[in-house]
Design goal:
By secondary structure, this protein is an alpha+beta fold. The protein has 5 helices and 8 strands; from the N terminus they run βααββββββααβα. Strands 1, 2, 3, 4, 5, 6, 7 and 8 form an 8-stranded mixed β-sheet that branches. A hairpin with a 2-residue loop joins β2 and β3. α3 packs across α5.
Length: 195
Amino acid sequence: MQLADSFTLPFPRERVWQAFQDVEQLVACLPGASLDSPPVDGALDLTFAVKLGPMLAQFGGKGEVAFESGGYRGRVSGAAADKRSNSRVKAEASFALAAIAENATRVEVVVDYALTGSLAQFSRGSIMKELASVLTRQFSQCLEARLTAASAAAHAAPDAADAKPAPEAAPQPVDGLRLLPRLAWAWFRSLFQRV
């Protein structure tokens, strides 16, 4: 299945491109995601946690990231499994950065994925589109906040630039139950689209 989304960041494309190449920062901005070890030559060891009511699914797997600097493009691909639900996911996310103004960059994202196992019931189109939309919005807000904080620190006094950043909180799983009203509405709309 394929999902597409986009968002705009109020920063020059070159600055956003630098941020996208900081893989640890990108993963930290994705709700429910964490790196099990630092990336090496584009290779990733990832965990993605999703909470659906009392059930917690933790997809652990491997992936890779590649960048095409000439076109301000890249892709992240990988495969992971959740042992508790005996579910597997395989996905590839492509992204492209377009300068739409001096201080504005449009990020286009296309995700191809396949989900198998007992959690495949949640991969219906409208439900996954809504979930992807929420995750994209949270990701873009986090990345924008980090870029804003980095810009503020760069313009602060030299002492502030040398200060150690606050430790990051442990990643929290995506709470599917909190998203349930939006997901239910997406499912309800999809019923009427079929009629």
